[in-house]
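Before the break, one more example. Copy the sequence into your notebook; we will annotate it together after we see the structure.
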Amino acid sequence: MLRIADTFVVENPTSLDEALYLLDRFGERARLVAGGTDLLPNIKHGLHAPEVLISLKRVPELRALDLDGDPFVLGATLGIHEIAQSDAVGAALPALRSAARQIAGPQLRRMGTLGGNVCLDTRCVYINQSAFWRGALGYCLKKDGDTCHVTVVGKKCVAAASNDTAPVLMAHDAQVELLGPRGARTLALEDFYVNDGEKNNALEPDEILTAVRVPRPGPTRVASFQKLRVRDAIDFPLLNLCLAFDLVDGQVKAPTLVVSAIAARPRRIKGLPEGPLNDDLVRAAGELAHKKIRPLTNIDADVAWRREMVPVLVARAFAEAAGGAA
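Here is what the structure looks like once it is written out:
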């Protein structure tokens, strides 16, 4: 039932065509890898047992960074560290650079990639454990078992999304480019994610995420990324969010709020208030988000505290976004 691969072969294609050929050749025996910061620990824990890893690090088509056109184009193997240190990204998409700077620690940021973070597997206190620990519990719905230990009676995995770039990209209406044997397709990031912790995205087994496209924000558009975690480095989010809005003569227009780390996919909060940017508007937006957000026990932190922090992070996001505009 559970097989942990002691060894695996690493293939290093140098073109997208070669990568697709290898993916088709090895089928379910293969996994794509870029930085490997999530995949390799999961292999160690017995969550995956591939015979072949297909590395995308030597495929030049995946390393694009184009901030001159509209939309912006960010390649799938663009490094998290590169995004975090780029002044050009900071000027064009400051919330994305902020999110990149808060992913894990410096060593992992130097290995991780944007595509890897966008496709990051969901997390749960019952799945991100050793095979021995999970076996003692009887495994779970996400891997080798038939029970969700969070909902107990549920038959759908509720492991949580934990990718910090996702709420920022979704708040900016980003799209992802996917390439497979049937050709290329483009999906809105909001449609790319699905509400299922077992596999929370629409990427087919024989497809590769090649790039993320982000519409160029208008001159009045401001945004802020906020993250809740136990420590200010290394830790996965207990809650994260991105708030974006147009700020015109002190007026908030077209606000967008995306909250994540509470369910299998990021969630867009609809119905945010518009009007003068003041304490009343900030309070109303925070109360609305608090009302709609109900974290589960899928992450090892107090759910009531995580929920109470929603309006706090919303207020911080308004302050940072408005401060950046000023």
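Residues 1-60 form a domain with the Uridine Diphospho-n-acetylenolpyruvylglucosamine Reductase; domain 2 fold (CATH 3.30.43.10). Confidence is low (pLDDT under 50) at residues 1-5. Try to locate both features in your own notes.
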